[in-house]
């Protein structure tokens, strides 16, 4: 029975391990662009822009409507007229005009012949599509940046776990040595207690790191749009440190953030032109055709023998509307539109300065991170060498336990500092790639 349970548990473990997904940075970003709600909503906005364009275009097409009515008049209005018209001068005739039942059906057409606001809207349609396309690109870049930064953070936390596990193993070996010495009367109990406390502290630190890894992985999966319960693994080769290309300052006007503002300015100009169109006259063609039935009975199925008569009529005409005075309302709207344009232009100036600052800061951070990595790598080498020598001296009785513990702490700290330096570099690298407008290269 126990053997069956063991086999069952092993099969569960194999199935769980089989579900672990190894993710390169490219795969993580690609997954996010396909599954994260922000990216999906941005694509939906691009799709919706086509429908908005169709809505604008519809104003330039004929507008056709149908109508139908059925009216019952229980009391017909009478009109008092002079009897002279009916050969009875000096008398007054009270006559009722109309029928108890009236039914009608018709169709109407309206076609704009000249409407400046419609023409302006048609010109703005292409810019509207391009605005949402650029906005979609900006959203994708934001998704890429968040995923990349969290991806690298998960790696650093896992490296810290690997270091703490290595430290625990090495400290455990020292504890076994001291335990043997203590059993043989060659070590003090306080030394054994100190190493036991050291192991306990390392175990506590390990649990804290495990918690941090779980939180960081959850954040990464959230930014990817991946189910939180998914198991992921990150290959180490993704974190090789290579010197980033520090070129001349990129053309800020090619950055997505700036292009979006530029396109927004274009749309505001069209909006102003649309308001200015309020000064222009409008001309439209109208036409209608109707069929009318009247009689003392419901006309729908009645005939002339029932006193119900049907007739048709139609009309074709032009409607000209000329704005003369609007109480300065149009002028106020034009000035408001102009203020919006000037305000956006100030935002564009500020954005150019901000993007230039981002690039300068990213290059500075890259250079500093490379120096820090070299320094920390050397510190780590020296700390490892000191620890090895101190451990040998301790075994030979030439160094105290305090010296050994201090050397272990220094070595662990040096290795942690090195992994943090790598994280700082990779985050700075993402910032540099972003400042050059090349985030999409991370998925090529």
Automatic annotation (TrEMBL):
Residues 1-18 form the signal peptide. Residues 334-393 form a coiled coil. SUPFAM superfamilies: Outer membrane efflux proteins (OEP). InterPro entries: OMP_efflux, TolC-like. Pfam families: OEP. One of its GO terms (cellular component) is cell outer membrane. It is found in: Cell outer membrane. Belongs to the outer membrane factor (OMF) (TC 1.B.17) family. This is Transporter. It comes from Flavobacterium hercynium.
